Amino acid sequence: MAQPIRKQPIKQNFSPEIIKATMETESSETRNQARLAILELANMISVPMSLHAVVRLNVADAIWQGGTNLPLSASEILAAVHPSGGDPENLQRILRMLTSYGVFAEHLSADATERRYSLTEIGKTLVTDGEGLSYASYVLQHHQDALMRAWPFVHEAVLDPTTEPFVKANDEPAYSYYGKQPEMNDLMLKAMSGVTVPFMKAFLNGYDGFQGLERLVDVGGSAGDCLKMILHKYPSILQGINFDLPEVVAKAPKIPGVIHVGGDMFKSIPSADGIFMKWILTTWTDDECKLIMENCYKALPVGGKLIACEPVLPKDSDDSHRTRALLEGDIFVMTIYRAKGKHRTEEEFKQLGQSVGFSSFQAFYIDYFYTVLEFQK
After folding, report:
1. Quick one: which of 70, 112, 302, 319 has the most CB atoms within 10 Å?
2. CA 337 vs CA 51, 162, 209, 310, 326: distances in Å
3. Any idea where the O-methyltransferase C-terminal domain is (predicted)?
């Protein structure tokens, strides 16, 4: 019988010089990529500031033109937003950079002499809708002078967490500062509306936990807009209570089925079989969150639930857009609102709930940024 042929492994004899040269080439490429990465990070302030610029110039609405989204040159955009003139070359420089981040789509002519720009899905978030809302106000709100002054002090949050960088820069906490600056406060409210409306639509389409509730409190409900949307979707809720600071609810409009109640969530919360809050816990310390949640627990009957919508951090620090957005938001909270206020993981929220007595906890990932957290008594 013929013996099977044994294949001998192919030996590749590389000289030490070749191996060394290959390793040096790979090492050089790695170093080059690292240098590019650090240059990008160091210059990244160009991104939010350029985004701020196109919002101030109303570029998105100029391109959108009621839904046409026809590619326009920088000169055409400038003529639409500022007829008295300007520098189209500098506008194009901004548009090109934001194109590299997916805000605009660039259309290059056949002879490569002209560039035109249309809106991507990201760019469309800056378009003013029929209710006068968009993410544009959110961009402007984040880059106001008082907030920008805080960022050089971020390292101070590490050295002295008892005082926020915003306070170090402006001599008082952000919320009290807003209260003395009507224009700043109005912009913040408009920014929150621009973010809230699309979130609430997605939230109400994907979450049915309000079924069976008869009395619902919205903690930190401001003008009552969220409560109005919830009651419209769930007419079985007999009464809505918009709960916020007395000076806030004093300006709230009349809403059918809703009563406005002023108070302090750190002292007590109106009783109900359901309590809703949105973006409240993330700006407070663990001890403050426990106090808020303990007051919620006291206000609920057995079987009642607290429904909180909050940013929830993932376990791993990967480089996805979602993780980066959440971690960036966490640093924003640390810098502007509370040095020890923070975004938390799902497990951290669960432990907070258990520490005040909630026996059941569920997390619903309906939105890419905000998570619905349900605590049941």
Report:
1. 70
2. 23, 12, 30, 15, 16
3. 154-359
Q: Under 8 Å CB-to-CB from 340, ≥6 apart: which residues?
A: 161, 285, 286, 334
Q: pLDDT (tens digit, 9 = 90+) per residue, 202-246? A: 999 999 999 999 999 999 998 898 999 999 999 999 999 999 999
User: How many Cα atoms are found within 13 Å in the side-chain-facing hemisphere of 102?
Assistant: 4
Q: How far is CA 131 from CA 226, 233, 255, 358, in A?
A: 15, 19, 18, 39
Burial class (CB in 10 A: 0-12, 13-18, 19+), 159: exposed
- Assess contact for 371 and 346: CB atoms under 8 A: yes
Between strands 274-278 and 305-313, the pairing is parallel
Query: What radius of gyration do the chain's Cα atoms show?
Result: 26
Q: Which residues contact 275 (CB under 8 A, 6 or more apart)?
A: 216, 217, 219, 269, 296, 299, 300, 304, 305, 306, 307
User: Is residue 98's pLDDT more than 50?
Assistant: yes
Which H/E stretch holds residue 206?
A: helix 182-206
Lowest mean pLDDT among 10-19, 122-131, 184-193, 227-236: 10-19
pLDDT digits (tens, 9 = 90+) for 267-287: 999 999 999 999 999 999 999
Rounded Cα distance between 330 and 343, Å, is: 5
